[in-house]
Amino acid sequence: MTIKIGDNVPDATLTEFIPVETEGCALGPNAFQVADLVRGKKIAVFAVPGAFTPTCSAKHLPGYVQQIDAFRAKGVDEVWCVSVNDAFVMGAWAKEQGAQGKVRLLADGSGIWTRALGLELDLNARGMGTRSQRYSMVLEDGKVTQLNVEAAGKFEVSDADTLLAQV
């Protein structure tokens, strides 16, 4: 079953590569529970089929990095990019894209959260395994208030400008 507006997002563990050790976060991959991260917050989430892939690197992630101040001005506490990659890959991509401190790149390495959302994408025929569909959504205290799922191979409704207009 696919998540829809009005649903609460399922809980799962996502990992984030932390480049600088801080109190409470060790250097390297750190695990976070979705339920803890969303509690009491407004979060813009977008998902990509893969870090370092053409559309994701040229358009999807850069749009959110460029619009971070506009999201914050509209009361968004955090912007997340989720992908079925590991935290090391997501950390390297965040560095390469200048996303650190702006967009949280959260790894769903085994696709558990992606499958729980019902938004997995079978790319086995292309040698990429099971990935995430391209989508965006707004979460308010864990509840989906906006959801934009792309048609296969498209990049038309999950971009930063579209989601920003919906916040």
From TrEMBL:
Concerning PROSITE patterns, the annotation shows: THIOREDOXIN_2 (PS51352)
Q: Which GO terms describe its molecular function?
A: thioredoxin peroxidase activity
Q: Which CDD domains match?
A: PRX5_like
Active-site residues from the entry = 56 (cysteine sulfenic acid (-soh) intermediate)
Q: Does the keyword Oxidoreductase apply?
A: yes
User: What keywords is this UniProt entry annotated with?
Assistant: Antioxidant, Oxidoreductase, Peroxidase, Redox-active center
Q: Which SUPFAM superfamilies match?
A: Thioredoxin-like
Enzyme Commission number(s): 1.11.1.27
The chain positions of domain Thioredoxin read 3-167
Q: Which GO cellular component terms are attached?
A: cytoplasm
Q: Reaction catalysed by this chain?
A: a hydroperoxide + 2 glutathione = an alcohol + glutathione disulfide + H2O
Question: One of this protein's GO BP terms?
Answer: cellular response to oxidative stress
Per its UniProt record, what PANTHER family does this chain match? PEROXIREDOXIN, PEROXIREDOXIN-5, MITOCHONDRIAL
Instruction: Describe the family membership recorded for this protein in Swiss-Prot or TrEMBL.
Output: Belongs to the peroxiredoxin family. Prx5 subfamily.
Its function, per the record, reads: Thiol-specific peroxidase that catalyzes the reduction of hydrogen peroxide and organic hydroperoxides to water and alcohols, respectively. Plays a role in cell protection against oxidative stress by detoxifying peroxides.
Record protein name field: Glutathione-dependent peroxiredoxin
